[in-house]
Design brief:
- With 171 residues, this protein is of the alpha+beta class.
- It has a single domain (4-152), classed as Hotdog Thioesterase (Thiol Ester Dehydrase, Chain A, Roll), CATH 3.10.129.10.
- The chain has two helices and seven strands.
- The strands form two sheets. A five-stranded antiparallel beta sheet has the order 2-4-5-6-3. The chain has a two-stranded parallel ribbon with strand order 1-7.
- Strand 5 (86-96) and strand 6 form a beta hairpin.
- The two termini are 31 Å apart.
């Protein structure tokens, strides 16, 4: 399994915010933004691994600035660190007012994804080659965050739920 560069899996999504994405005051619901964050992170993880991936955790997400109906939302995601079966993806959300062109930072988060095989078991992921000084800094910072996450992690065991129907799988 060959290691990959950060640039091989990064993604930027854009979506215009419509009335169904917002409350009656015109503010975009945080849950809509978090869904886009998770989708962008999953795309990056899947591009890096070429396997199915699942979200294992989402670090704190603070809403720094609001987003409104009519804003163009950008979700920028890239891989920061990989371990044996998991990887940290950094995601930044920005809003652009299409009337003024002003960009605002809405929020950022780190997500951990685990690659899984056809039997839904964790599987090894390719290594990561940080090339730029920025990518190397992010790699080292992500490595430290992972250590902190592991220190605070509670032991748990995945329990397969019966009666889950997945496309292409009958259980």
């Amino acid at each position: 399994m060959e290691a990959k560069t950060v640039s091989q899996s990064g993604v930027e999504l854009a979506q215009i915010m419509m009335p169904e994405h917002a409350n009656v005051a015109g503010n975009v619901h945080g849950g809509n933004l978090l869904k886009l964050v998770d989708q962008a992170g999953a795309i990056v993880a899947a591009r890096h691994t070429h396997t199915n991936v699942v979200t294992a955790s989402v670090d704190r997400f603070d809403f720094i600035s609001p987003a409104y109906i009519g804003n163009l939302i950008f979700i920028k995601a890239s891989i920061n660190f990989v371990s044996r079966t998991s990887m940290e993806i950094g995601v930044r959300v920005e809003a652009e007012c299409l009337k003024t062109g002003v960009h605002t930072h809405v929020g950022s988060a780190y997500l951990t994804f685990v690659a899984i095989d056809k039997d839904d078991k964790p599987t090894e992921v390719p290594g990561l080659i940080p090339e730029t000084e920025e990518e190397k800094r992010r790699y080292e910072e992500a490595k430290k965050r992972r250590e902190i996450r592991l220190q605070g992690a509670k032991p748990h065991r995945h329990r397969q739920q019966p009666c889950i129907v997945r496309p292409g799988k009958i259980q």
